[in-house]
Amino acid sequence: MGFEFVSRVFGGRRGGHLAATVFLVYIVACLSDYPSFNDSATNVVPSEGPIEGATCRIEQLEYANDSQLHSILHDLTRTNFFKMFTVELQRKCFFWKEGTTSTAGDGPAPAFGEEEEGTGNGEDAFDCPGSSQFDLAPDAEPLCSLDTGTGGPFGGDSGSGFGSFLPEPSPAPVHSFQYTRPSDSVDTLKAEGVPTAFWADMCDGYDGSGAATIVDLTRNPERNTGYDGSHIWDALYEENCVQMDSGDTCYEEVVLYRLVSGLHTAVTVGTAKHFFPPTGAGGSAWGPSPRHLVDRLAGHPERVRNLYFAYVVMLRALSRAAPALMSYPIHTGDVRDDRTASALLRRLLDSGILSSCSAVFDAFDENAMFDQDRKAGTTTLRTNFKQVFQNITQVLDCVQCQQCKLHSKLTITGYGAALKILFLPQDDIRDSLTRNELVALVNTVAKMSASMRDARELAGAYKKDPTGGGAEPDIPHPLPIKGYTDLTGPAAALSG
């Protein structure tokens, strides 16, 4: 009917068909050139298909997350025990260019690796330029500052000396950061096996020797701070060379890359969820920016898939730690809240949930890692993997935003706890986990869980209103791994 009408408009039936065809082809071509917001939103969050490197599918992970896991994790991370995290915000950064200034502008920063007190480190090393992007109240705190109030059974500050406000921002820290090279590989070591305690110190956590802040995570959700962390992300991706000297990409290297990329995606989702700060009188709610999510992730489905993969790895760690954590002592002084936390933790680790969701809890096989070491009778790959992971934690000491450093440290500690659980003998898991590591583990699992749901909701909101929200230039998830696109075997399965 429509084609016949266009034919008559273009000259009747004789010759009109050809003109109408040309006209309709032209319209279709124009429409195909115009940005398809709905297609972008649809493709940005894959909703089905296999998760590369795991034995489950996206649909299974989403079902388990929506039906049981998300609600339990949400409630668990709001209990007193699991909402308080200890973080060293003043730990020194070792990656400052020689001759540049610190944030406070108090002279040259130390050379690479130098430990000069008070230069390029500490409270005066934090930077918060993002606040100027929004119309905040005159007395509003900088967006990247922490709320260190004492709402809970723990104190807010443990001798760190941080107040609620940060000094005036300066662009100096970003320009003075220098990451020169990935870590050197370790010489091949012959060994009968790996010592029991080899993986026990995966987490570079608080050891009680320095100033630390105890933060209530419920009062400091991940949000947009305007901080440009592109130099940090570049360093994190470069610090990913696990293989020794063959130049080939190993399975372990791709696992580590996908964990970092999954963290990157989760940060993107969290930022998009809480993008616009409250600006009205008495307002406290942060507004989302679906466009920020789509601009960062559209055309890169592997980024969300890496988030799924990271979630699966974390769930596998929970499953393996279940026997050790079932009776973990939770004591904060609030008896009722402690009982709630213990019940929720047991519910999360309940054999019924583990069995009903076994497709996702057992979807990652840690035994496939370090096979080269076992065949060669060495510990080289394991030693390199551990060193690279610990170097990544040191790079995070150079983050110049309190909020960003808090959440990056929280997640990397959660990753470290998960890897420790996966690689240690099962009988050693209970004694090796510190309280802070358990808090980080649970909150990191919850972060991945929430990111899955939030990404889907933000993409749906974008489809309804593609013009809403703002965005920043894309920070890519680079592929620094040599031969990444030409992988075969186990590593190829992870290259999504």
Fold and architecture overview:
- With 496 residues, this protein is mainly α.
- The chain has 19 helices and three strands.
- It has helices at 2-9, 16-33, 37-44, 58-76, 80-83, 172-176, 230-238, 251-273, 290-297, 301-325, 335-349, 351-356, 358-361, 371-376, 380-395, 402-423, 429-432, 435-464, 490-493; strands spanning 84-87, 157-158, 212-216.
- The two termini are 45 Å apart.
- Mean pLDDT is 73; it is low at 1-11, 18-39, 99-124, 151-175, 185-192, 471-475 and 479-496.
| Category from helices, strands and their pairing | mainly alpha
Question: Roughly how much helix do the residues carry, as a percent range?
Answer: 40-55%
Q: Number of DSSP strands?
A: 3
Order of helices and strands: HHHHHEEHEHHHHHHHHHHHHH
How much of the residues is beta strand, in percent? under 5%
Rg measurement, Å: 25 Å
The coarse silhouette is globular
| Arithmetic mean of pLDDT | 73
- Low-confidence spans: 1-11, 18-39, 99-124, 151-175, 185-192, 471-475, 479-496
Q: Biggest β-sheet, characterized?
A: 3 strands, antiparallel
Strand line-up across the major sheet: 1-3-2
How far the N terminus sits from the C terminus, by CA atoms, comes to 45 Å
Count of helical stretches: 19
